[in-house]
Structure formats: structure tokens, C-alpha cells
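Design request, C-alpha cells follow.
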């Protein structure tokens, strides 16, 4: 890749959140492979190096170019070897170690010798170049490269597919805005057993939080599907069970943010970010069964699937960036076959916890031969009843013919009230380079006139618009304004106020010198 290419729509959203410093470790995707037997370590290291040649996205980085995130050549994946050490601590160390998004590498490998005939490969990838299905692709290709099996190159590159996805998004944008006009509503507080509001008084913040994890398995019956829901997929039944459970807890119109794959058949053999989070809402009838609710969600999802390539932030005006679109989020994938490395017995931990949670409660489900493995990642400051939630969800999934109104889960929690702090009044005075800043806003938004108190998002702006404004302010005026300023006070008056406040705290010239 000789010239920068625009990041994919999904990469833009993650890049924005990372730049705001609100992601923590939420976008670090760990994977562990245990090898039993005589491992040829140099051969495995060579296979790891060859992965970057087969999947160039693993050797890229994301950098800003004139206010737009672009994919550029980065450092190749790092490969380290540890001959000793505490495995759990090494895994935590690799997860905690930050990524340099602008320089790379965005994936790293560490091979740990636990015993003479036992090794563990720790893989940590950044979500900017990786998703759940990429785990299957990576391990399949790594095994083939280690074994010396013939392997055909994938068609095109991730950058090629990202360009196709941007084109699909642009074609669908007008219809997507109309589709979400009637459907989108900002999710409110969520009711869960043992839930206590975080310090800001809301059930969700815009950033990731240090999380905890609770795992359980729903055995075989769910994988076979309920008799009365032949047209309903296992994912749709799981989603309906989550909605029914939220309704039983007192949430009359549940909303669940769902990770939806944007992969096309041409991209099935690629490593990369092919996922878009979208909200799924319902208004369950207490007289309906869980299976009937699943059928209704099936119909709604069929409509939504058309707009999978369009990030919600591009379709809905005024949507502020956050690590999750709703307090409850869900991801689902089918587990791929275990990779086969010649002469070795292998075991894969597909769902290593990265230590952060993007929402109040994230339900990660991996469907395999033994049933559904569920990993509930949650904010322990907000959720105390995670064991009860797991028990209730299991009961519902095992009884899809249950009537929703008859689902009993104990006392419903209540909130003491809304303690949100109202926004302070915005100072509208202008000083310094005010006229130049207004001109940049008009230029980027394509508008002739913009009032000092008009909301950027109401004017059609979005996250990428903001980065372009910031870049032009930096280049022309030597002024740096953080993304947080635009999201907290997205008006010209708010931006000017932040500049005034910064100047009063420490004298800084327009060229940035002190």
C-alpha cells in the first residue's frame, strides 16, 4: 500500500473513541492457543510473520490526514518469546500494553514455554483490524502456514473491501436516514437485578469501564432451536430471550445494541473489521411467547440487514460517540472448527476477557457443538445481580414457548430518580479567531450561515466532520481543541468558550507557542 486510503466506516467510529481516550482496553481482542506436544517454535514464529504477508491489514496503522482517518503502512506484528513466567500475568500484561494506533503494530504475538511439551501462544489484536470471525481466519491460516499446507491468497485486501463498504454506505445513506428516523430513540436507564447507578446518575456512560466477567453454558437444546420457531435463527432466539428478560425486569421497551457482521462472500477469508453495532428495540406483548417475539425480531432484523454497512452515527443526527449504543449489548458468533497443527494437540480459548466493558452489560455468545457458551461482561459498579441474570436468561432460553407476561424474576428494581446534571449555560461571547472558526464550520458543513448556538449535529455534522474541523483549525490557526469539547458543547459558542477558558488558564499564542 503506497498511498493512504480512507479508513472503513467501522474503523472511523473506533478511531474516534480511541482518540477521545475513552476506550480503555475495550478494543483489545485477546486469543490463547495451547499446544501440547513437540512444538517447532521457529516454524511457528515464521508462520506468524507470514500472516502479515497474507493479510496486509495486520501491518497497517490508522493516522489522521487532513482531519480524516486513513489506513497507512505500519510496523509489522511483533513476536516475542517467553521461556518462563506466570502465564496469567503475561496474558494480563499483553492486554494492558497499549497499542500505538498511528504507528502500529496493531497485533502482537507472545509464545510462552510453560513446560517442555506445553506452549501457549498469546495473540492480542486491536479491534481496528480484527473482529470475532477474524479469530477463525487467523487460526486456520496460521495452522496451514505452520503445517506447510497449500493456501490460496485471499481476493483483494482489506483496503479494497473497505472501499467497497464505503461505496455501499453512500448508496444506502439516504434510505438509512429515513429508516432510522422513526426507529431511533436514545436508550434510557435500564432496570436489572441489583443495579445501582454509576456516580453520574446514568445507566451508561460514553466510555468503557473496568469490568468483571461471569460465564455459563446453555447446553444442546438451544442449538437445535424450538419446535415452534423453525424460521428463527439461534441468534434471533437468543436476542428475543434477552428482550423478554429485560421486559420481565420492568423495561417496557427494551433496547439491545447488537454487533452485526458486514462481511460479504468476497470477504469471508479476510482478517479485518467487518462489524457494525446497531440498536434493536422491541415492545413485547405480555401475552406473546418468547418464540413469537423471536419471529417479530426476525422480521425487523430482515429490514435492518439492508442497512448494516451504515454506522448509526451517519444515519442519525445528534448521535454522540460512545463505546456502546445502549446499556445492554450483545454479540453472537458460531465457533469455527478447532485448528489442526501437525503433531500437536491444541486447545483454543476463544473468549479471553480484556478487562473492560463497553456497556453496563455485554453478553457475548459463542455457539458450538456443546451448546451456547455465554460470557457476560459487566460493570461491577452498576450490576450486582449478574448470577441471577445468568440463571434467568438460561431458564428463558431453555423454554422458548414461555409466555412473556408469566416470566417471574423476583422483585423489579427501581430508581430513586434521575440525577443527571443539566448542562451549564453556554457563554456566547466571541474573541480571538472567531470569524476564522465560523468560516471553517461553514466550509466543512457546506452552509452559508451558522448561528453561534446552533448544534453541529443538528446541522448534519458527525464525528468525521468534527475531526476535519479540528484539523483545519490546527493547520490554519495553530489552535488545538479536543474532541470532547465538540461532543459536550457542539456549538461555535461552546468551542469559543473552551478556547477562552484555555487561554485564561495558561497563555498560549495562536501558533501554539508558549
Amino acid at each position: 500500500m503506497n498511498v493512504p486510503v480512507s479508513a472503513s466506516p467501522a474503523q472511523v467510529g473506533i478511531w474516534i473513541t480511541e482518540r477521545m481516550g475513552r476506550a480503555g482496553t475495550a478494543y483489545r481482542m485477546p486469543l490463547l492457543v495451547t499446544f501440547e506436544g513437540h512444538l517447532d517454535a521457529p516454524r511457528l514464529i515464521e508462520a506468524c510473520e507470514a500472516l502479515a504477508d497474507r493479510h496486509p491489514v495486520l501491518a497497517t496503522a490508522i493516522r489522521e490526514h487532513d482531519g480524516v482517518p486513513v489506513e497507512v503502512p505500519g510496523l509489522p506484528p511483533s513476536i516475542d518469546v517467553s521461556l518462563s513466567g506466570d502465564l496469567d500475568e503475561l496474558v494480563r500484561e499483553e492486554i494492558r500494553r497499549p497499542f500505538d494506533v498511528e504507528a502500529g503494530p496493531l497485533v502482537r504475538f507472545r509464545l510462552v514455554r510453560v513446560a517442555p511439551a506445553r506452549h501457549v501462544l498469546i495473540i492480542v489484536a486491536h479491534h481496528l483490524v480484527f473482529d470475532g470471525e477474524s479469530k477463525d481466519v487467523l487460526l486456520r491460516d496460521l495452522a496451514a502456514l505452520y503445517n506447510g499446507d497449500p493456501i490460496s491468497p485471499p481476493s483483494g485486501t482489506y483496503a479494497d473491501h473497505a472501499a467497497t463498504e464505503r461505496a455501499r454506505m453512500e448508496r444506502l445513506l439516504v434510505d438509512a436516514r429515513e429508516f432510522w428516523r422513526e426507529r431511533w430513540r436514545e436508550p434510557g436507564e435500564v432496570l436489572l437485578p441489583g443495579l445501582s447507578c454509576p456516580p453520574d446518575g446514568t445507566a451508561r456512560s460514553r466510555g468503557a469501564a473496568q469490568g468483571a466477567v461471569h460465564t455459563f453454558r446453555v447446553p444442546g437444546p438451544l442449538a437445535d432451536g424450538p419446535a415452534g420457531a423453525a424460521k428463527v435463527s439461534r441468534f434471533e432466539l437468543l436476542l428475543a430471550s434477552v428482550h423478554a428478560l429485560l421486559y420481565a425486569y420492568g423495561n417496557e421497551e427494551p433496547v439491545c445494541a447488537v454487533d452485526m457482521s458486514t462481511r460479504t462472500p468476497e470477504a469471508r477469508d479476510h482478517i479485518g473489521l467487518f462489524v457494525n453495532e446497531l440498536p434493536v428495540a422491541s415492545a413485547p406483548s405480555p401475552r406473546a411467547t418468547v418464540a413469537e417475539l423471536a419471529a417479530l425480531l426476525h422480521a425487523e432484523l430482515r429490514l435492518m440487514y439492508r442497512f448494516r454497512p451504515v454506522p448509526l452515527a451517519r444515519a442519525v443526527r445528534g448521535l454522540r460517540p460512545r463505546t456502546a449504543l445502549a446499556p445492554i449489548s450483545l454479540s453472537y458468533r458460531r465457533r469455527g472448527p478447532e485448528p489442526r497443527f501437525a503433531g500437536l494437540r491444541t486447545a483454543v480459548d476463544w473468549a479471553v476477557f480484556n478487562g473492560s466493558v463497553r456497556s453496563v452489560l455485554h453478553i457475548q455468545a459463542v455457539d458450538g457443538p456443546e451448546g451456547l457458551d455465554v460470557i457476560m461482561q459487566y460493570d461491577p459498579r452498576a450490576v450486582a445481580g449478574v448470577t441471577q441474570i445468568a440463571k434467568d436468561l438460561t431458564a428463558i432460553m431453555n423454554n422458548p414457548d414461555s409466555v412473556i407476561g408469566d416470566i417471574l424474576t423476583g422483585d423489579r428494581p427501581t430508581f430513586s430518580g434521575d440525577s443527571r446534571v443539566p448542562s451549564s449555560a453556554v457563554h456566547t461571547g466571541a474573541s480571538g479567531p472567531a470569524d476564522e472558526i465560523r468560516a471553517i464550520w461553514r466550509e466543512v458543513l457546506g452552509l452559508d450561515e451558522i448561528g453561534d448556538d446552533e448544534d453541529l449535529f443538528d446541522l448534519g455534522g458527525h464525528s468525521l466532520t468534527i475531526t476535519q474541523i479540528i484539523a483545519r483549525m490546527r493547520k490554519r490557526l495553530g489552535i488545538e481543541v479536543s474532541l470532547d469539547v465538540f461532543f459536550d458543547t457542539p456549538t461555535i459558542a461552546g468551542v469559543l468558550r473552551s478556547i477562552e477558558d484555555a487561554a485564561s488558564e495558561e497563555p498560549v499564542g495562536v501558533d501554539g507557542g508558549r
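Comment from the thread starter after seeing the answer: thanks! The two ends are 39 Å apart (CA to CA).
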